[in-house]
Specification:
Layout (H helix, E strand, L loop, with lengths): L1 E4 L5 H7 L9 H17 L1 H11 L22 H21 L4 E5 L2 E9 L2 E5 L8 H14 L3 E6 L9 H9 L5 E3 L2 H10 L9 E3 L4 H11 L6 E2 L7 E6 L5 H12 L6 E6 L2 H15 L5 H8 L3 E4 L3 H11 L3 E5 L15 E4 L5 H6 L25 E9 L1 H18 L2 H15 L1
Helix pairs in contact: 2-3, 2-7, 2-8, 4-5, 4-6, 5-6, 7-8, 9-10, 14-15
Length: about 425
């Protein structure tokens, strides 16, 4: 990790230090995803079964996980099951509290309000890969259930044996999701957006994935009768603000926990102490040596930085400019500094709060804006699975009060029919 002193950098150098990996417009990728989507739209399940064989190495007869396949849940240990159930309980509790409530009020003869309603059909994409992302399933399924989404369609790539990991099966059952479809990649996104013989069409798609999944979500969201996406996605990232009292072992472990995600992941240490920076550097090297994903970590760290700030005030200015997905505060009286946080996906306050707890079981959602999108996007929550519908109900006295205002504004915009809709009512009341 390169070390820089913020006060000695030019504006151009500061931008370079905080720059993420450039998202390239890969024409070949865009074209390939477009072809996959078109194939799924035309050939439905047949295309999905062919892609499962081609990309996942799985020969499938059916996309839907059968009841018999759920017997694999028995292979999980009691500790594994209990860990999942504890995480579910915490995540459900947090999201229940954060669920938006409908409201109404009266003002000047008008009753106004907002109704929160669930999106009826949602798709939940759970990535495959080397390990089952059980935590992602929980982060999607629980708020979708609390929101009241009537149809929740879960898709996940099968293993080469044609099966879904038992931990995914158990977590889905525990979250009240009974239908799981064995499909992954851009083809699964296409199936969710447009529907096939087996997989129902949904209105909005949630969940992370590789560059093919991300591109497919973008394309279907821009297609008529496709599906909305949850948020823009990019490589994972963390920024740690640490003072001279921070524990270098803890700081290093937090940086490495993020660096192991992906070679494109970015980690930044923002500290007021050169001495701490040196200790963290040594600790990063020590801990990396015994971690299983050390090669990924080394590539990630090569893109990362240690920034020396003159004080905490400057540190928070830099952090807000960067707008990290994860912000960790390892500073004295950390909670007192929360008012200074303007742009961040999620904040982990104090030395006993590693980012890992938010990833798995504290209760907050780990689907968060990356790539600087925390400047304008929020992390996933129940409201993402809902729509807000405003309403108004005017009484006769209400239209008398507001009508002349509307008539004047309609005249101002030259919209006679708008004005007339009010005028005929006022005339009726005055007749």
């Amino acid at each position: 990790m390169r070390v820089v002193i913020w006060g000695q950098l030019s504006q151009t150098e500061r931008k370079l230090v905080l720059a993420r990996s450039q998202a390239s417009d890969d024409e070949a990728l865009i074209r390939q995803v477009k072809e996959i989507i078109a194939n799924v739209r035309q050939n439905g399940d047949k295309a999905l079964l062919e892609y499962a064989a081609k990309f996942d190495g799985a020969k499938l007869d059916c996309l839907l996980v059968s009841e018999d396949e759920y017997k694999a849940i028995e292979s999980l240990s009691n500790d594994e099951k209990q860990a999942i159930l504890t995480a579910i309980d915490n995540i459900r509790h947090y999201h229940n509290i954060s669920c938006p409530k409908s409201f109404e009020f009266e003002r000047n003869g008008a009753k106004l309000g907002k109704l929160y309603r669930p999106i009826e059909k949602v798709g939940l994409y759970i990535p495959g890969g080397t390990a089952p992302l059980v935590s992602t399933l929980l982060m999607l399924a629980i708020p979708a259930t609390i929101a009241g989404c009537e149809t929740k369609v879960l898709v996940t790539p099968p293993g080469k044996n044609g099966l879904v990991n038992p931990a995914i099966l158990f977590a889905a059952k525990a979250c009240g999701i009974d239908a799981i479809y064995k499909a992954g990649g851009a083809q699964a996104v296409a199936a969710l957006a447009f529907g096939t013989e087996s997989i129902p069409k949904v209105y909005k798609i949630f969940g992370p994935g590789n560059k093919y999944v991300t591109e497919a979500k973008i394309q279907v969201s821009q297609t008529h009768n496709g599906a909305a996406l949850d948020m823009p996605a990019g490589p994972s990232e963390v920024l740690v603000i640490a003072d001279d009292k921070a524990n270098p072992v803890f700081v290093a472990s937090d940086l490495l926990a993020q660096a192991e995600h992906d070679v494109a992941a970015q980690v930044i240490l923002l500290t007021t102490s050169t001495e701490l920076a040196n200790k963290v550097h040594q600790e990063v090297e020590r801990q990396t040596a015994y971690l299983s994903r050390k090669e990924i970590i080394k590539q990630s760290l090569a893109k990362s930085a240690v920034i020396i700030a003159k004080d905490l005030a400057e540190a928070f200015v830099i952090s807000n400019q960067y707008a990290p997905e994860h912000l960790i505060l390892q500073i004295a009286n950390a909670e007192d500094y929360l008012p200074q946080v303007i742009n961040a996906g999620s904040v982990f306050v104090g030395e006993w709060t590693p980012e890992s707890v938010g990833d798995y079981a504290s209760g907050t959602n780990h689907v968060l804006p990356t790539y600087g999108y925390a400047q304008m996007y929020s992390g996933l929550d129940v409201i993402a699975f809902m729509k807000a519908i405003s309403f108004q109900n005017l009484s006769a006295s209400g239209i008398k009060t507001l009508g002349p205002v509307v008539e004047t504004l309609a005249d101002l915009e030259g919209l006679d029919a708008h004005k007339n809709a009010v005028t005929v009512r006022l005339q009726h009341l005055n007749s």
